[in-house]
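4.2 Preliminary Data

To establish feasibility before requesting continued support, the project team ran the inverse folding procedure on a target of 111 residues. The structure was first converted into the token representation described in Section 3, and no sequence information of any kind was made available to the design step. The complete token record follows.
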């Protein structure tokens, strides 16, 4: 039996949950959602798991995060960007279209 501390971050304050979102590992994300970890942790730039998934166009991660933790989509990073800003900035078209179709995002909100 191995014991892994899932709350240890790297030099950018990224946790395993950030990497799961970034790489579209929805099985890992689901597992981490069910553990006692906080999903609201940010990296050194203030990015949440929703920002990570948005930057890397990980639509499956985005859908799961939306289903489980919708409030993350209103969080701004240290640059004033929400996940939809991040998707637009990095050309993450699948994520951008999905978030726009939800019709819950204020597209006039500035960063």
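Position-by-position output of the design step:
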């Amino acid at each position: 039996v191995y014991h892994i501390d899932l709350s240890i971050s790297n030099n950018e304050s990224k946790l395993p949950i950030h990497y799961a979102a970034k790489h579209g590992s929805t099985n890992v994300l689901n597992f981490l959602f069910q553990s006692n970890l906080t999903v609201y942790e940010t990296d050194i730039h203030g990015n949440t798991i929703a920002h990570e998934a948005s930057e890397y166009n990980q639509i499956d991660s985005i859908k799961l995060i939306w289903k489980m933790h919708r409030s993350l989509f209103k969080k701004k990073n240290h640059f004033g960007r929400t996940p939809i800003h991040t998707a637009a900035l990095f050309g993450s078209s699948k994520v951008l279209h999905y978030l726009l179709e939800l019709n819950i995002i204020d597209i006039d909100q500035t960063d």
